[in-house]
Design goal:
The chain is built from 16 helices and 9 strands. By secondary structure, it is of the alpha/beta class. The structure holds coproporphyrinogen III.
Length: about 350
């Protein structure tokens, strides 16, 4: 591996400068991504064609001095493999054709076989590793059981995800049956990505923060901990650092750090220094600038990068990122300014 910064930071080892990658770094803000997506015909086709998924994974790596690549895919590949059928249309967002609306729908679900039912993902991981040729490490990922259950029940995005919450209140046993099967699917999927060559794993619990504290512990945290435990008992995945990102769940950082993960992703509603004080040296931290910073001027971007680095302080264990994904309207040159500023302002002599 030519660039070890990201993996060293996840292990909380000293680095020459702070590593940086960006959630959704392969995406619509890049004209080359939009061109490949048009060639693919659809987002799902892009995900399911390993050569094209590899091509878009490498696009931001070719353009910027990023310290990690992330597999181009989606969290909704698992529900798709479970038979719910994913599509993503321009201006509509992700949609599942067969959402779970009855108990019988949940009883029918099984754990997909990652190497056969999700073979296109494993083929993409193997191909990307070969094409990266050791330039930077590759991150694999999955959605959290709670976040996947939100989409599986609702069938599409939602501001409140009232349907999955109502199921958790009305029929917690059925909700737990769903979360259990999804958690086993996520663990198997992540272990297979590690076996295929993913060098770090990340779980996106995008909608964890919608839950009140007690519900968060029962319906999200419990299953994140279960997955972390399953991965610890897997002979390949046990050595692959796991990053947990529960967006909007800052009140649970200590509990998340106790799951046995290597790092926590943070959104921008907490100062890095405060988060570090709370979790101490148990885990590395990843984040956490407000993605809207990229709409500000280059000088303002550099200023915010400097403040975030200063807030974390001169400790090992920081991976720079935004607090959520980069948005389609961003000028790519502004992302270049951010990445250069992270490296320049964090250089240790
Ligand atoms: O970070 C990366 O570069 C890797 C690729 C990646 C995508 N989705 C590509 C994508 C990752 C890690 C995801 C995860 C994902 N997908 C999450 C968790 C992360 C988060 O943002 O909180 C969620 C909630 C989803 C579900 C999903 N898929 C959403 C909300 C969307 C966006 C819909 C829209 O129109 O804005 C998608 C589609 C999607 N996934 C796109 C990309 C680049 C845009 C689709 C397109 O090209 O039209």
């Amino acid at each position: 591996m030519q660039n070890e910064r990201f993996l060293r930071a996840l292990r909380r080892e000293p680095v020459d400068c702070t590593p940086v990658w960006i959630m959704r770094q392969a995406g619509r803000y890049l004209p080359e991504y939009r061109a490949t997506r048009a060639r693919a015909g659809s987002f799902v086709k892009l995900c399911k064609t390993p050569e094209l998924a590899c091509e878009v994974t490498l696009q931001p790596i070719a353009r910027f001095p990023l310290d990690a690549a992330i597999l181009f895919s989606d969290i909704l590949t698992i529900p798709d493999a479970m038979g719910l059928s994913l599509s993503v249309d321009e201006g509509v967002g992700p949609r599942l054709a067969h959402p779970l609306r009855a108990r019988a729908d949940i009883d029918k679900l099984g754990v997909p076989d990652a190497e056969t039912d999700l073979r296109y993902v494993m083929d993409a991981v193997r191909l990307i590793r070969r094409e990266l040729n050791g330039r930077v490490p590759l991150i694999g990922f999955a959605g959290s059981p709670w976040t996947l259950a939100c989409y599986m029940i609702e069938g599409e995005g939602s501001a409140s995800f009232a349907r999955p919450k109502a199921l958790a209140w009305d029929d917690p046993a059925t909700m737990h049956r769903l979360l259990d099967v999804v958690a086993r699917a996520v663990a198997a999927y992540l272990a297979a990505q590690a076996a295929a060559g993913a060098q770090a794993l990340m779980i996106f619990d995008t909608w964890g923060g919608l839950l009140a504290p007690e519900m968060f512990r029962e319906f999200s945290l419990r299953y994140l901990a279960q997955i972390a435990q399953i991965l610890k008992s897997n002979h390949v995945a046990r050595d692959v650092p796991l990053i947990l990102f529960s967006k909007g769940a800052n009140s649970h950082l200590e509990a998340l750090a106790d799951t046995g993960c290597a790092a926590l992703g943070l959104d921008w509603t907490i100062a890095l220094g405060d988060a570090r004080t709370r979790v101490g040296d148990r885990v590395a931290l990843q984040g956490n600038l407000d993605p809207s910073v990229l709409h500000a001027t280059p000088d303002a971007i550099r200023g915010e990068v400097g403040k975030a680095l200063a807030s974390f302080g001169a400790h090992p264990g920081h991976v720079f990122n935004l607090g959520h994904g980069i948005t389609p309207e961003v000028n790519p040159e502004h992302l270049g300014v951010l990445i250069d500023a992270v490296h320049a302002l964090s250089t240790r002599t």
